[in-house]
């Protein structure tokens, strides 16, 4: 694979999707068709259908392991249909969430085992991990307050309405993953002003994928 794979991660309310959208707006003209922007769960027809099932607030009876398996299934389809072809074509792939989300949310948040969820995803991805992961860190309550203040009722999904204790476990899970993958993780303080977070993110991308930005 001649491309480069960078993921965006963070707990709810960290603003990673907003940052990602702003970053793409600023760099897309420089990269053109050498850039692929995608998300998880989702990224193609089948994976987006699985996303709808996972995040539907009506699916309150969903078992934690079912949830984890659905994320892995969506990820597998996303990988083989969207990400790998882009990497083989030499593109820079920016993805909103990947394996680390499952380890933090289902492994730690749902308490079904971080290593168990990771091993499940090793099978789904055949051990393909991103080159770098940009992690947007924010205190749990600050993130939840942001969601309450800025996210429309229709945009609030099944995970957003979980108890604070769930979100605290997710945050703790992310910090454990980051500690165990220090060579891959780049930490960004998401409590800083949005413009500063965006510029920091662009700086990381241009440093870690500098070959895409050469004149």
TrEMBL record:
<feature type="binding site">
    <location>
        <begin position="10"/>
        <end position="17"/>
    </location>
    <ligand>
        <name>ATP</name>
    </ligand>
</feature>
<dbReference type="InterPro" id="IPR027417">
    <property type="entry name" value="P-loop_NTPase"/>
</dbReference>
<dbReference type="GO" id="GO:0004798">
    <property type="term" value="F:dTMP kinase activity"/>
</dbReference>
<keyword id="KW-0808">Transferase</keyword>
<dbReference type="GO" id="GO:0006235">
    <property type="term" value="P:dTTP biosynthetic process"/>
</dbReference>
<dbReference type="GO" id="GO:0005829">
    <property type="term" value="C:cytosol"/>
</dbReference>
<keyword id="KW-0547">Nucleotide-binding</keyword>
<dbReference type="InterPro" id="IPR018095">
    <property type="entry name" value="Thymidylate_kin_CS"/>
</dbReference>
<protein>
    <recommendedName>
        <fullName>Thymidylate kinase</fullName>
        <ecNumber>2.7.4.9</ecNumber>
    </recommendedName>
</protein>
<comment type="function">
    <text>Phosphorylation of dTMP to form dTDP in both de novo and salvage pathways of dTTP synthesis.</text>
</comment>
<dbReference type="InterPro" id="IPR039430">
    <property type="entry name" value="Thymidylate_kin-like_dom"/>
</dbReference>
<keyword id="KW-0418">Kinase</keyword>
<dbReference type="InterPro" id="IPR018094">
    <property type="entry name" value="Thymidylate_kinase"/>
</dbReference>
<keyword id="KW-0067">ATP-binding</keyword>
<dbReference type="GO" id="GO:0006233">
    <property type="term" value="P:dTDP biosynthetic process"/>
</dbReference>
<dbReference type="GO" id="GO:0006227">
    <property type="term" value="P:dUDP biosynthetic process"/>
</dbReference>
<dbReference type="Pfam" id="PF02223">
    <property type="entry name" value="Thymidylate_kin"/>
</dbReference>
<feature type="domain" description="Thymidylate kinase-like">
    <location>
        <begin position="8"/>
        <end position="198"/>
    </location>
</feature>
<keyword id="KW-0545">Nucleotide biosynthesis</keyword>
<dbReference type="GO" id="GO:0005524">
    <property type="term" value="F:ATP binding"/>
</dbReference>
<comment type="similarity">
    <text>Belongs to the thymidylate kinase family.</text>
</comment>
